[in-house]
Specification:
Distance between the termini: 31 Å
CATH topology of the largest domain: Rna Polymerase Sigma Factor, Chain: A
Number of strands: 0
Helix content: 55-70%
Largest sheet: none
Keywords: Sigma factor, Transcription, Transcription regulation
Order of helices and strands: HHHHHHHHH
Protein name: RNA polymerase sigma factor, sigma-70 family
Structural class: mainly alpha
CATH class of the largest domain: Mainly Alpha
Number of helices: 9
InterPro entries: RNA_pol_sigma-70-like, RNA_pol_sigma-70_dom, RNA_pol_sigma70_r4_t2, RNA_pol_sigma_r2, RNA_pol_sigma_r3/r4-like, WH-like_DNA-bd_sf
Family: Belongs to the sigma-70 factor family. ECF subfamily.
CATH architecture of the largest domain: Orthogonal Bundle
GO molecular function, one term: sigma factor activity
């Protein structure tokens, strides 16, 4: 477990024991990540903000029932994902297809003028990758985001996606392999490129 995750878990346990300051520490540390993740699921900024506020209110409300041994970041991502899906389903109406919910529209933006692309050939490569990312399923794009941008482990990403760890590993492996074959780049190159492209738009 990383030092950061240890810190999250320490504050999580303190909060469960009654320390409200620990919740504020977690909120300050994770709110930007949660907001960015939420915007990838839903373009309504106010809805995302409301969902995050509701999430932390729920933590206080149901503190006594919380599990002290969790992957905190993954738990919060997963909880926010469910809240947004329910909120959008409610807004759309129960007759809407499941594919129209936020969690099935996962997307990310990319600015082709961003300063990490310095050479013309890099512009071409990133443009090709963006095209290939658009051809992936929303499930594949979300898995890549969780693994390469949010930095979650396979176990944590699986928790957010609500699939088994084995399925998560297979999903990410096959997706990255597919992109590498399409673009003819190394594993190391595709990893660094994905980290940049799945970042928040400015």
């Amino acid at each position: 477990m990383s030092e950061q995750n240890v810190l999250y878990l320490t504050n999580w346990k303190l909060f469960i024991k009654g320390d409200d300051r620990a919740l504020r520490v977690m909120f300050d540390a994770l709110v930007e990540e949660l907001y960015t993740f939420g915007l990838h699921l839903c373009t309504d900024e106010e809805l995302v903000k409301d969902a995050i506020q509701d999430l932390f209110l729920d933590l206080t409300r149901y503190r006594a029932n919380l599990n002290p041994e969790v992957h905190v970041q993954a738990y919060l991502f997963s909880s926010l994902r469910r809240k947004l899906a329910l909120a959008i389903k409610r807004d759309l109406g129960n007759t809407q297809l499941r594919e129209q919910s936020a969690v099935h529209m996962f997307d990310f933006e990319w600015d082709p003028e961003t300063n990490f692309i310095q050479r013309e050939e890099e512009h071409v490569l990133y443009a090709k990758l963006r095209k290939e990312l658009a051809n992936l399923s929303a499930h594949q794009r979300e898995a890549l985001y969780l693994r390469f941008r949010a930095g979650l482990s396979y176990q944590e990403a699986a928790m957010v996606l609500d699939i088994s760890v084995a399925s998560c590993r297979t999903l990410i492996y096959r997706t990255v392999k597919q992109l590498r074959e399409k673009l003819e780049v190394t594993k190391e190159s595709i990893s660094s490129i994905l980290w940049l492209l799945t970042g928040p738009s400015k």
